[in-house]
Amino acid sequence: MEAKSFRKAGHAPSLLSAFLYFDVSFMIWVLCGALSLYITKDFGLSDTQKAAMVAIPILGGSIFRIPMGILADRIGSKKAGLTGMFLTIIPLLWGWLGGSSLLQIHMIGFLLGFAGASFAVSLSLASRWYPPQYQGLAMGIAGAGNSGTALATFFGPQIAQAYGWHSVFGFALIPLGIVMIVFAVLAKDAPNAPAPKPLKDYLSVFRHADTWWFSMFYAITFGGFVGFANYASIFFYDVYGDGAHPGGLTKIQVGYLVTITVVAGSFFRPLGGWIADRIGGMRLLLVLYSVISVCAFAIASMPGSFLVMLLYTSVMMACLGMGNGSVFQLIPQRFSSEIGVITGIVGAAGGLGGYLLPTYVLGPLKQSTGSQVTGFLVVGSIVLLTTLIFYAVTRSWRKSWAKAESGVNF
């Protein structure tokens, strides 16, 4: 009965379109991370350079998400989505036919940020179709497009092994073209979308302290997810690969492990939104942040078995994915009329967190200490501090806008 009510409450073709757009875009956005073991071999990069290479696409996505969010509010999510997919063709063609220097790889990676910016469009498309009581589930389903990471980490290394890593960018044009057609046919802007406003009115959300709090909290959940998803191949191969240990994991096997880890984070996102609708995103996030911190400290113990490590990383990624869904159960309740731009801003913060994680924490600390341990000790400490801050902030939210009489669980 509840599933039937959910289907009747919104527009299923648009929700499917939002998921597919985000899914194929996310697959493309993380290609540098999925192919990192092959690209870095060609250019002989240091630990810090490897981390920066996989993080640049995340930075590009962070920068492009805000203008794409504003564009979705001004011209509609459908037109904005088609524009984003068209722009994504540029770096794919460049990666397929060029990419012969490290500078070109960095520029290609930055332009892959157009794909990462899909977040601001797909979630606003889904959100506007559904009432408050279904925001967590609707945003979770659209946001499950994170699963595109699994497609990249599973198929990318295999195609690169067979045809070279450049060809992976060319193959990616095929699913992108298919999704563009499906999106053009099925997606429809919600009739309740607000009228376009002057640019200064959209940017006025920066004046709200809650904009910055949501950005910080999402920088932990989404930033942790996408940052580790891009760095995971380097991490697993460094610790358990055949380059470090005779008889260790091959690059293809590492791709399988990363895929399992990423799938845990991707497919738990809708579950996080669904649970948040029932018990409240604030309650759920407090638990999730605590578990994420424990998992980061457990990873820092560097167990000898890669299966034990896979368990730690998968639980951490599952909680990060559920946290993503939980944050976006709350945001539409606070910023219902600015959902496009606020999604862009908060999404940009999430992407920035994903950029900072490998570039300024995991990569440099690995290079300076010779071990991955310190990096995850720092991550665990950051998340623990965030948990305490989140608890304090949400107490004030319950006294202002997150009140029980609204009929929504917080």
From TrEMBL:
Keywords annotated in UniProt: Membrane, Nitrate assimilation, Transmembrane, Transmembrane helix, Transport
Subcellular location: Cell membrane
Sequence intervals crossing the membrane: 20-39, 51-68, 80-97, 103-125, 168-190, 211-234, 254-272, 284-300, 306-327, 339-361, 373-393
An example Gene Ontology molecular-function term: nitrate transmembrane transporter activity
Protein name according to UniProt: MFS transporter, NNP family, nitrate/nitrite transporter
Domain Major facilitator superfamily (MFS) profile: 13-398
Keyword Membrane found: yes
Family: Belongs to the major facilitator superfamily. Nitrate/nitrite porter (TC 2.A.1.8) family.
Cellular component, GO annotation: plasma membrane
Predominant location: membrane
Top-level taxon in the UniProt lineage: Bacteria
